[in-house]
Write a structure and sequence with these properties.
single chain, 477 residues, alpha/beta, Rossmann fold, pyruvate-formate lyase- activating enzyme, OB fold (Dihydrolipoamide Acetyltransferase, E2P), 3 domains, six-stranded parallel sheet, five-stranded mixed beta barrel, 21 strands, globular, binds iron/sulfur cluster
Length: 477
């Protein structure tokens, strides 16, 4: 329908171009006979994808069935990201598409969820007239009531940030799942106030989920045939839950161990960490269990201490380098990846070079790399001038990407000749004659299929070739 409208089709093409490399889009599974249909798509971090699974579960409990077909939906939901300006622009473009659909099918409700909903609140309703629902990350239980409000012709809005909500009792509806690996949200919010970040404002204070409900979910996934779980949180390694009955405190290292003990063939991963909470206890627990994957995402953001101080990252260059040394000391085969921001406020050329030399020092397996995007309401937006010209930001980012790509290739080439246990996730994107899967270090490996193997099986693969993003190999033994 909107495809035959040149403006909207053009817009869709733009959005598709925007999306290159951004993991964001998701339509739901297994259409069921139900009274009403919902359609949901998600943008941004894995937390948002997991939240969409909670939303889907709440809607399924309230008479909604899922559809992949937006035009069939009675309710269209978009779970939004606010981390960079570009993410919000993409959402606004998407809303224009929904507007056309709504004009075609009056009565269709459009709802905005997630961080952009929380950041803009009622302003969203003023700016985007087509929007019927604005619901923040802690208010999804309120969905059925707000939908009823909107069906009566009013606007439904709830952007209350909670200090308790973890949705622990809601079993997520696994969306777009490969049936092999799944995410388990273990905590919400973030108490770190990194000066460039909106998350503390859009997701509230940290709260950790009941440890037993997490282990129950991991066990349930195992029984359903899943072979890998990723423990998820904005700041996952500051997890801390106090058992209200016994007063016993479960910290992140304890939770990692409890999850590893669910079953030796259930792989355990976690994301995202703040370097300050990666303790020796966590590292030795990772070393103790083979099924805890030897991979840590350790965002550095900058390689320069003055810039790190402006970012309020609570560590400096030396401290972070010692943490990296400690990880490689305890687990020499551990892979580390990172996040790096180019062109933060007042960053000099010399300080930019510190970020480059940090990449050379840490030899990350890969990194997520962006140039600084000022976010309204953050500490940096209030205190510092966004004074690095866009041209310089982009040039510095290109230098960071070029260096990181070269190091990723070197690290992958060092794996040629090695044999890894790989968990098969499915067919390779390029050929259905090949399987794809990851090793413990979170590296994707592509290899020719063999009879009798299927997604969810482990197999041993010898690496024969490498690019900066992927390893290639053959099954051995
Ligand atoms: S740790 Fe910092 S960057 Fe990460 S979510 Fe929290 S405030 Fe944002």
């Amino acid at each position: 329908m909107y495809n035959d409208n040149p403006t909207l089709a053009g817009l869709q093409k733009e959005i598709d171009e925007d999306r290159q490399g951004e993991a964001f889009y998701q339509d739901v599974i297994n259409e069921q006979e139900g009274s009403k249909f919902f359609y949901i798509e998600s943008y941004g971090c894995q937390m948002n994808f997991s939240d969409s699974e909670i939303v889907a579960s709440i809607l399924a409990e309230n008479g909604f069935a899922a559809t992949r077909n937006m035009e069939k939906a009675d309710l269209i939901l978009i779970n939004t990201c606010s981390i960079r300006e570009k993410a919000e622009l993409t959402v606004r473009k998407r809303l224009k598409i929904f507007d056309a659909l709504k004009n075609e099918k009056p009565g269709t409700l459009v709802g905005v969820l997630g961080c952009m909903a929380e950041r803009l609140k009622t302003k969203f309703l003023e700016e985007e007239k087509l929007v019927d629902l604005v619901i923040g990350p802690d208010a999804y239980r309120d969905l059925p009531k707000l939908i009823a409000t909107a069906e009566d012709g009013d606007k439904g809005i709830n952007v209350f940030l909670s200090r308790e909500e973890t949705y622990a009792d809601i079993s997520p509806m696994r969306l777009d799942s490969n049936g092999v690996s799944a995410f388990i949200s273990i905590m919400r919010g973030c108490d770190n106030m990194c000066s460039f970040c909106v998350v503390p404002f859009t997701r509230g204070r940290e709260r950790s989920r009941n440890a037993f409900s997490i282990i129950a979910e991991a066990t349930d996934l195992l029984n359903k045939g899943y072979k890998e779980v990723t423990l998820l949180g904005q700041n996952v390694d500051s997890y801390k839950w106090e058992n209200p009955e016994s007063g016993e405190v479960v910290n992140f290292a304890n939770l990692l161990e409890m999850t590893a003990l669910v079953h030796p063939k259930l792989r355990v991963r976690f994301s995202t960490s703040h370097p300050k909470d990666i303790t020796d206890e966590v590292l030795f627990t990772m070393k103790k269990y083979e099924n805890i994957c030897k991979y840590i995402h350790l965002p550095v953001q900058s390689g320069n201490s003055r810039v790190l101080d402006l970012m309020n990252r609570t560590y400096d260059r030396e401290w972070y380098m010692n943490k990296v040394r400690r990880i490689y000391e305890i687990m020499p085969d551990c892979a580390i990846s990172s996040d790096i921001i180019a062109g933060f406020c007042t960053e000099t050329e010399e300080e930019h070079k510190d970020s480059l030399s940090m990449i050379e020092f840490a030899r990350y397996s890969m990194s997520y790399m962006f140039y600084y995007s000022e976010r309204p309401g953050t500490l940096a937006a209030r205190k510092y001038e966004d004074d690095i010209p866009l041209k310089v930001k982009k040039r510095r980012l290109q230098e960071i990407i070029k260096l990181q790509t070269a190091i990723s290739l070197e690290r992958n080439q060092e794996d040629i000749g090695k044999v890894f246990e790989v968990l098969i996730e499915g067919n390779s994107k390029r050929s259905d004659q090949d399987f794809k899967g990851r090793n413990s270090q979170n590296k994707m490996i592509v290899f020719p299929k063999a009879d009798g193997l299927k997604p969810g099986d482990y197999t041993m693969v010898k690496v024969t070739d490498a690019t900066s993003a992927t390893l290639k190999g053959n099954i051995v033994g």
